[in-house]
């Protein structure tokens, strides 16, 4: 057996994992600030349609990605205003945001259904791309894929080394104490929510301009929910988010290659594998409450008002 199929599977795994990395790392920072945003799926869809529409009409994918970031941030600000300022229930508001995003993206994307777009080009690095085995595995992706790795290191550094990252974690653990010593709890939470929205927007943009370069209704196909599960699966650790995303990416592409390898498995079963894996992993983790509570922010999902 040649190494070509193995390389193809590994490359496809990295590509499939990229939107999960963006969405999950964004949600990780949001939850580290004590805010639970279940609207990731909706923000991804809004980002996807914004990137596709702007990229197609202007011919600039860069503008498309900026539009996706702006759309994601705008959606997150709606969520932030309702949950941080008006103190609404975060779970209910997040679910409403997802439903809103699904409906709005379907309506806004009607004129673009089925239209193709020139995808984000892969980089072709001289000499490096031609290295046997390592060349195709490491040096033939597009900028968005490499950006997901940069984002991982940035989030890791931010949460562990920077002043604002430590403040974000403090707000997620004890917002009352942070407020008592004069820290802007609401501002920190707004910033974290907006960062999560921007990352979800990029994740959605990647779906419609790189992974599947066309607009299809509900094209996120539950990836926003998988990203949410990844944060729990990773026990709020960025490195585990990265590894978990590649794990779920591998499960996702398995359905594409299984029948090509002669496995006599119904296609419907292969299609449900990523979601089945999500459920199994969460069940296994949740059996031990200590694992879940190990790194979970103490104030996650709890509203905070300085006057109370």
UniProtKB/TrEMBL annotation:
The taxonomy runs: Bacteria, Pseudomonadati, Pseudomonadota, Gammaproteobacteria, Nevskiales
Q: Which residues cross the membrane?
A: 6-23, 35-56, 62-84, 91-113, 133-159, 187-207, 219-236, 243-263, 269-286
Membrane among keywords: yes
Q: What is this protein called?
A: ABC transporter permease
Localization recorded for this chain is: Cell inner membrane
Sorted alphabetically, the keyword list is: Cell membrane, Membrane, Transmembrane, Transmembrane helix
- Species of origin reads Banduia mediterranea
- InterPro entries the UniProt entry points to: ABC_transp_permease
Chief localization: membrane
**Pfam families, from UniProt?**
BPD_transp_2
| Membrane topology per record | Multi-pass membrane protein
């Amino acid at each position: 057996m040649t190494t070509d199929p193995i390389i193809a599977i590994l490359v496809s795994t990295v590509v499939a994992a990229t939107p999960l990395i963006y969405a999950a790392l964004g949600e990780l920072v949001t939850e580290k600030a004590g805010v639970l945003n279940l609207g990731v799926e909706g923000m991804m869809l809004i980002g996807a349609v914004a990137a596709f529409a702007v990229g197609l009409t202007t011919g600039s994918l860069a503008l498309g990605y900026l539009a996706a970031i702006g759309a994601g941030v705008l959606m997150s600000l709606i969520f932030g205003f309702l949950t941080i300022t008006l103190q609404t229930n975060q779970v209910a508001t997040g679910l409403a945001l997802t439903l809103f995003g699904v409906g709005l993206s379907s309506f806004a994307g009607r004129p673009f259904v089925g239209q193709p777009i020139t995808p984000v080009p892969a980089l072709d690095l001289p000499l490096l791309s031609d290295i046997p085995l390592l060349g195709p595995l490491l040096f033939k992706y597009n900028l968005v894929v490499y950006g997901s790795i940069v984002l991982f290191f940035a989030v890791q550094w931010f949460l562990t080394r920077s002043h604002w990252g430590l403040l974000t974690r403090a707000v997620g653990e004890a917002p009352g104490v942070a407020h008592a010593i004069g820290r802007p709890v609401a501002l920190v939470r707004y910033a974290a929510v907006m960062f999560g929205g921007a990352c979800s927007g990029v994740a959605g943009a990647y779906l419609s301009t790189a992974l599947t370069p066309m607009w299809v209704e509900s094209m996120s196909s539950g990836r926003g929910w998988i990203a949410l599960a990844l944060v729990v699966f990773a026990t709020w650790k960025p490195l585990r988010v990265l590894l978990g995303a590649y794990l779920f990416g591998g499960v996702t592409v398995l359905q594409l290659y299984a029948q090509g390898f002669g496995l006599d498995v119904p296609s419907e079963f292969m299609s449900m594998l990523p979601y089945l894996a999500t459920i199994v992993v969460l069940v296994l983790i949740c059996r031990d409450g200590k694992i879940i509570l190990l790194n979970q922010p103490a104030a996650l999902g709890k509203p905070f008002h300085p006057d109370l």
